[in-house]
């Protein structure tokens, strides 16, 4: 989990600046190499290290996948299959990062260009040359400028924690995800002890939570979009399909959290039921039903807060998703390590009741963000605008001051100044 927390922070900044394609290829190569090593490894220490390497590759790819969705929408034989996917990916996967290809009209170049894209671009260039289309040729030639790939900077992810609204949303998201990881962490030990299940049946017990998460994914997306349209219609904001909306006048925090609130309540109650059914050793159906509703409620809260973070940072979606991974994985690692000792000390019922009480307190965070979120967001935007204006003014002052410095130093501006002096001498 620690590797999963760190990896997106390293890859995301590079992805937002240099494109998704190169970052995806790096992640898939790391993932494939780790899988090959895991298939051949028998030493526990090496197994642990390779598992961390595998987590590094796959968790960063999850963050990149979310970024691709944000770009294009307004989310022992294993190595062989991964290798086949990597070949298909390398040949056909297009670049989607807006910093690299804009809205798709700017041709990609270099490592950001797939083989299919390269062949299409060559065909279009030849066609433009035959037709004598100078404008089209200039577009293709202008994009072949070298662009330095910046070194990955994980601190760009940590900077998001300095934003008040983003930090609160990340903590909310991380606490809810921690609850789901805590529930999954107790299943092997408690289910095997209480219900005398073998490894196979313990594994099957995870299906209920997965079905709950799937139900959330299939239903809540439509509800979120419907609520967005409802608020936009109420405020008289026109919606254009395929076009990003200006969110400055839209209370996007209220739009998202109105849908989260029912899932929050469902998940909180399900945690209480889950803990006490284990304490009283009820039928296996009891905790399994609770796991279904934990998956439904927690996935709703987790996925929609992910969407909200992308709304708040549409210019840096991969970095925002990396911040989510960083916070949730570190918190989940601590929660998973603490839950079994908690259950031993205070019974599963009270341990999960404690978690539910934390979620009851978190309801106040929902109402706080619905009330203050838009104001904080606009204040942060105004602060960024003022900072950008100050930087522009400083740059303009430097440009205006450069001729005077140039004339003293004998640079290019000094040459032009000397030319004026010569003309004056001739006139005399």
TrEMBL record:
<feature type="transmembrane region" description="Helical">
    <location>
        <begin position="79"/>
        <end position="97"/>
    </location>
</feature>
<keyword id="KW-0813">Transport</keyword>
<feature type="transmembrane region" description="Helical">
    <location>
        <begin position="259"/>
        <end position="277"/>
    </location>
</feature>
<feature type="region of interest" description="Disordered">
    <location>
        <begin position="396"/>
        <end position="428"/>
    </location>
</feature>
<keyword id="KW-0472">Membrane</keyword>
<feature type="transmembrane region" description="Helical">
    <location>
        <begin position="322"/>
        <end position="342"/>
    </location>
</feature>
<protein>
    <recommendedName>
        <fullName>Major facilitator superfamily (MFS) profile domain-containing protein</fullName>
    </recommendedName>
</protein>
<feature type="transmembrane region" description="Helical">
    <location>
        <begin position="289"/>
        <end position="310"/>
    </location>
</feature>
<dbReference type="InterPro" id="IPR036259">
    <property type="entry name" value="MFS_trans_sf"/>
</dbReference>
<feature type="transmembrane region" description="Helical">
    <location>
        <begin position="200"/>
        <end position="224"/>
    </location>
</feature>
<dbReference type="Pfam" id="PF07690">
    <property type="entry name" value="MFS_1"/>
</dbReference>
<dbReference type="GO" id="GO:0005886">
    <property type="term" value="C:plasma membrane"/>
</dbReference>
<dbReference type="GO" id="GO:0022857">
    <property type="term" value="F:transmembrane transporter activity"/>
</dbReference>
<feature type="transmembrane region" description="Helical">
    <location>
        <begin position="52"/>
        <end position="73"/>
    </location>
</feature>
<dbReference type="InterPro" id="IPR011701">
    <property type="entry name" value="MFS"/>
</dbReference>
<feature type="compositionally biased region" description="Gly residues">
    <location>
        <begin position="407"/>
        <end position="417"/>
    </location>
</feature>
<feature type="transmembrane region" description="Helical">
    <location>
        <begin position="169"/>
        <end position="188"/>
    </location>
</feature>
<keyword id="KW-1133">Transmembrane helix</keyword>
<feature type="transmembrane region" description="Helical">
    <location>
        <begin position="348"/>
        <end position="371"/>
    </location>
</feature>
<keyword id="KW-0812">Transmembrane</keyword>
<feature type="transmembrane region" description="Helical">
    <location>
        <begin position="22"/>
        <end position="40"/>
    </location>
</feature>
């Amino acid at each position: 989990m620690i590797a999963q927390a760190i990896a997106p922070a390293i890859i995301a900044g590079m992805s937002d600046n240099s494109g998704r394609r190169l970052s995806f290829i790096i992640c898939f190569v790391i993932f494939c190499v780790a899988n090959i090593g895991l298939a051949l490894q028998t030493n526990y220490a090496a197994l642990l290290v390779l598992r961390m390497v595998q987590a590094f590759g796959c968790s960063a790819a999850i963050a990149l996948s979310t970024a691709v969705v944000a770009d294009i929408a307004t989310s022992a034989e294993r190595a062989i299959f991964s290798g086949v996917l990597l070949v298909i990916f390398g040949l056909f996967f297009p670049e989607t990062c807006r910093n690299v290809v804009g809205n798709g009209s700017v041709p990609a170049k270099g490592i950001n260009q797939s083989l299919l894209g390269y062949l299409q671009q060559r065909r279009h260039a030849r066609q433009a040359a035959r037709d004598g289309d100078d404008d089209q040729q200039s577009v293709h030639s202008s994009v072949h400028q070298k662009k330095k790939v910046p070194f990955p900077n994980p601190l760009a992810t940590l900077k998001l924690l300095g934003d008040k609204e983003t930090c609160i949303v990340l903590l909310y998201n991380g606490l809810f995800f921690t609850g789901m990881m805590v529930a999954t962490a107790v299943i092997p030990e408690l289910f095997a002890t209480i219900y005398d299940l073998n490894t196979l049946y313990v594994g099957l017990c995870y299906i209920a939570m997965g079905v709950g998460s799937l139900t959330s994914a299939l239903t809540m997306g439509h509800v979120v979009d419907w609520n967005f349209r409802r608020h936009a219609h109420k405020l008289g904001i026109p919606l254009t399909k395929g076009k990003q909306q200006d969110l400055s006048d839209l209370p996007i925090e209220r739009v998202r959290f109105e849908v989260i609130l029912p899932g929050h309540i469902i998940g909180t109650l399900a945690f209480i039921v889950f803990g006490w059914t284990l304490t009283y050793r009820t039928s296996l159906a009891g905790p399994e039903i609770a796991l279904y509703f934990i998956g439904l409620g927690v996935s709703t809260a987790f996925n929609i807060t992910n969407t909200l973070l992308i709304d708040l940072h549409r210019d840096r979606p991969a970095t925002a998703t990396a911040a989510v991974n960083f916070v949730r994985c570190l918190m989940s690692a601590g929660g998973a390590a603490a839950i079994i000792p908690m259950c031993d000390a205070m019974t599963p019922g009270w341990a999960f009741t404690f978690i539910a009480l934390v979620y009851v307190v978190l309801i106040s965070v929902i109402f706080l963000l619905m009330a203050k979120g838009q104001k904080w967001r606009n204040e942060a935007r105004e602060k960024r605008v003022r900072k950008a204006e100050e930087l522009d003014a400083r740059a303009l002052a430097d440009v205006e001051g450069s001729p005077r410095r140039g004339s003293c130093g004998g640079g290019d501006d000094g040459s032009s100044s000397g030319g004026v002096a010569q003309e004056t001498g001739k006139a005399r």
